[in-house]
Amino acid sequence: MIRAPSIQRRRAASGFYLYALALQACGDLEEVPRVELPVVVDPGGIERSTSDLGYEVMLTGARAMIENLAFTIAGEAHARSLRRHVSDLFVSSAYAHPGHFQGGDVTGEFRGRFQLNWLNADAPELGRATLLVGTYASANFTFIQATEDDGLAAEDPLLGHTAVLEGVATRDARAVVFTAIIDSPEGRELVGAPFEFEVRQSSTEQLGIRLLTLDPFEGDTLFDGVDFFALDEDADGSLRIDAQATSPELIDAYNQLRRTFQTHDHFSVDASQRK
Fold first, then answer.
1. How far is Cα 189 from Cα 106, in angstroms, rounded to an integer?
2. Whether 132 contacts 29, CB under 8 Å
3. For a Cys staple, 8 with which of 4, 16, 120, 261, CB 3.0–4.6 Å?
């Protein structure tokens, strides 16, 4: 677990302060209500799924490094003149297929570097996000690569990489145990992950970051297009997919998996009552 440094929290608070000043300048209201809600890693999106090639895939390990979550409200919050006053707070949302938000303004933040470990039952709270009261529709964040400063051991397979996915792919009574190591390009942002929630001053819910092995809107799986048996050329039941692959088939599989993993189809933020 990596918490956001206090200086980053001060910067986020400063951004919201500027936003509030701009709202006052527009005469919309005297004070902008804001709420702090806990952010956690939610394993609820990881489920056994069947790929387009007929493989039943179940993850046994799933970790990733991200930074700086931003939460966007539904619709256009204010005029362009307002955005010019707080341009450092707002970013545009991406256009997306049905089920994913297509536009809006950032009015919530959770800054810092975070390791997401979806299958760690004892994963602690990551920290607290600050959100202005409103109806939210999506979330954004940036993929990063883990460093020694993130508290990882020297032998940790996540070190120097963005994500490590481990699991078992089964078809026709045959199984392959696999490890996939993903490296995202520097500054690669994921935009438009679903986050449908109305934040009120009385809200006490926790915000859970989910990895979705199955896209709930279109039915695609995280491992569509990956032919595990064909890639396991020596048929030893073990497979590694990473950027160091040398065979054309493994290179294609790595690129396919990386593209899919980096889309908003397979992430969401879900609000739930704290346990």
1. 14
2. no
3. 4
Alpha helices in 131-227 (DSSP H): none
Helix (H, G, I), strand (E, B) or coil at 43: helix
* Neighbouring residues of 15: CB distance < 8 A, sequence distance ≥ 6: 86, 88, 89, 109
Report the C-alpha gap between 113 and 129 in whole angstroms. 13
Q: Tell me how far apart the alpha carbons of residues 107 and 136 are, in angstroms, rounded to a whole number.
A: 9
Alpha-carbon gap, residue 154 to 219, rounded angstroms: 38
Q: Which two tokens stand for residue 47?
A: 């489920």
Q: CA 212 to CA 26: how far, in whole Å?
A: 40
CA dihedral sign, ordered 75, 80, 81, 87: positive
Parallel, antiparallel or unpaired: strands 206-211 and 134-143: unpaired
Q: What is the largest CA-CA distance in the chain?
A: 69
Could you list the pLDDT tens digit for every one of the 275 residues in the chain?
444 443 333 344 444 444 444 444 444 445 779 999 999 999 999 999 999 999 999 999 999 999 999 999 975 444 333 333 333 333 333 333 444 554 568 999 999 999 999 999 788 899 999 999 999 999 999 999 999 999 999 999 999 999 999 999 999 999 999 999 999 999 999 999 999 999 999 999 999 999 999 999 889 999 999 999 999 999 999 999 999 999 999 999 999 999 999 999 999 999 999 87
3-state secondary structure 89-101: CCCCCCCCCCCCC
From the centroid of its chain, how far is CA 271? 14
Distance, in Å, from the CA atom of 89 to the CA atom of 6, rounded to the nearest integer, reads 18
Residue whose entry in the numeric block shows the structure tokens 């294609």: 252
DSSP lists the bridge partners of residue 210 as 42, 268
